[in-house]
Design a protein that fits this description.
Layout: H1 24-34, E1 40-46, H2 56-65, E2 66-75, E3 81-84, H3 86-89, H4 96-101
Length: 102
């Protein structure tokens, strides 16, 4: 969900060549970015395992587009979830944006 309240959904897009697989997190963020909505307020990540956390590529991708006040929600259900900030899940990212905030 962007800070404007717009919601974008994403899905995993699997591929036999694993490196070109697109995770749901990057799919949703790419949809928002393509629509010109670059201020992400909250990203909710769900999966079929106990607390599905984003992969390293998705964490770095989020570092480029989330702000320090953006929320990352890892959820099994509406009652079972954890809320993180970007620095909680990726404290040492490669984002120039992050370096400027320090």
């Amino acid at each position: 969900m962007t800070k404007k309240g717009n919601i974008y959904k994403g899905v995993n897009i699997e591929n036999a060549a694993y490196s070109v697989t697109l995770c749901a997190e990057r799919s949703a963020l790419s949809s928002a970015i393509s629509a010109g909505d670059k201020e992400i307020g909250t990203i909710i990540i769900t999966g079929d395992s106990d607390m599905t956390y984003p992969c390293g590529v998705c964490r770095q991708f989020m570092a480029e587009f989330l702000d320090s006040d953006s929320k990352i929600v890892i959820a099994n259900s509406t009652e079972d979830y954890k809320i993180y900030g970007l620095r909680d899940i990726l404290p040492y990212n490669f984002s120039k944006k992050d370096l400027e905030e320090k």
